[in-house]
Design brief:
There is one protein chain. By secondary structure, the protein is of the alpha/beta class. The protein has two domains: 3-56 and 333-379, Urease, subunit C, domain 1; 58-321, TIM Barrel. It contains eleven helices and 15 strands. Strands 1, 2, 3, 4, 5, 13, 14 and 15 form an eight-stranded mixed beta sheet that branches. β7 (86-92), α2 and β8 (114-120) form a beta-alpha-beta unit. α3 packs parallel to α4. The chain is globular.
């Protein structure tokens, strides 16, 4: 047989490869073997109809947390991902130099989801404590250890993570950002990702010390010193210029970082996120308001982002940052056969942001089928 699996008749959308239309996808040896308006079903071991559904590359979530407090999503990572069409995920700094080995061990032995990770500048990583955040005490900073972990784990570690906010850093100045940037250089010029919610100092002061390819995450929070400054009405020119220069702005929903009014104003002013992610943890996956990546994508569809723009920012754009350009987040022949099939359901769907405001969305994405490396990983039960 020419194909191990054939998906037929779905509405394929892959902006990175310029694919849009009703097509069949042939899969062989875990790779995309062919994609065309029609492929012969008699040459496939198994055929699945995707008629009336959207077919996209497997989703890529560039900001989630597998190992906060040395567990969190942990062994539940696959269940959270496969049921939502996510085949690739990035842990956003759950661990630092002292506990990265625990993350590595769990991923090597317990998790099938494709995962890469940012390494926290703090040696202890994101660890809950009543005595402050992971960098509230300067001795927790371990630039040498962080850089060493990245250099010794090139298949897994891709950059440096810094959470900047009240109680999270040892001083409210630009020094923590400078140290994170220096650490990224020590690690071979990798990107740094900076969490900015409720910053004690203006955002332009922080991004001044970032380079193209660095990531500002939680860009749509509605708290202090965000992309619209303290007035929260108009985009800061420094933010617009930074995005044009190549600094990446990631929305990362989270429990405290996604404000509908901020999103509406930003989109109205033409500021789209470069990547769409969840900041998913077990709490936000089971209690909301995040739930999963398709829900976050659906919220942005409600506020006017196009389907193509949303899909690109949840597939090829984060895949490129993670070092998977051309092999993950695309349906072009030769790429890994990671595929998500969705229903774009019409209705009235109540959705909530991180500050308790609600909207009634008229459409939402629901994962129907997830294929990872050519094998069916999830099929939605019949309703």
């Amino acid at each position: 047989m020419k194909y191990d699996l054939l998906l037929t008749g779905g509405e394929v959308i892959d902006p990175s490869a310029g694919l849009r239309g009703v097509m069949d996808i042939g899969i062989a040896g875990g790779k995309i073997a062919a994609i065309a308006p029609s492929l012969p079903a008699n040459e496939a071991r198994r055929t699945i109809s995707a008629k009336g559904r959207l077919v996209t590359p497997g989703l890529v979530d560039i900001h989630a947390h597998v190992f906060v407090n040395a567990h969190d999503m942990g062994i539940h990572t696959d269940q959270c991902c496969r049921t939502s069409g996510v085949t690739t995920l990035c842990d956003a700094g759950s661990t630092g130099s002292s506990n990265f080995a625990g993350l590595r061990h769990m991923l090597d032995h317990e998790v099938r989801t494709r995962v890469r990770a940012f390494v926290n500048l703090s040696a202890i990583g994101i660890t809950g404590t009543s005595r402050g955040g992971e960098l509230s005490h300067f001795p927790y900073a371990d630039p040498e250890g962080c850089a060493r972990i990245i250099l010794e784990n090139p298949d897994l570690a891709i950059g440096v993570k810094l959470r900047y906010g009240p109680g999270l850093v040892w001083e409210y100045s630009t020094e923590p950002v400078k140290l994170a940037r220096k650490t990224a250089e020590m690690a071979g010029g990798v990107p740094m990702m900076m969490h900015i919610t409720d910053s004690p100092i203006p955002l332009p002061d922080l991004i001044e010390h970032m380079k193209p390819g660095d990531i500002v995450t939680h860009c749509y929070h509605g708290r202090a010193h965000g992309i619209m400054g303290q007035e929260k009405q108009f985009l800061l020119k420094e933010v617009v210029e930074a995005q044009k220069a190549g600094i990446i702005f990631d929305c990362a929903h989270g429990r405290s970082h996604f404000n509908f009014r901020m999103i509406e104003r930003a989109l109205d002013q033409g500021f789209l996120p470069d990547t769409i992610s969840t900041d998913l943890t077990m709490t936000s996956a089971t209690r909301g308001p995040v739930w999963d990546l398709p829900t976050t994508m659906s919220k942005l569809l409600h506020f006017g982002m196009s389907l193509d723009d949303v899909i690109r920012r949840a597939t090829s754009a984060p895949a490129k940052i993670m070092g998977y350009e051309g092999t993950v987040g695309t349906l072009k022949p030769g790429a890994n056969a990671d595929i998500s099939v969705f229903e774009l359901r019409d209705g009235n769907f109540e959705m909530r942001d991180s500050d308790g405001d609600t909207i009634i969305a008229k459409r939402r994405l629901l994962a129907q089928l997830t294929v990872k490396e050519g094998r069916v990983w999830y099929e939605r039960p019949a309703e």
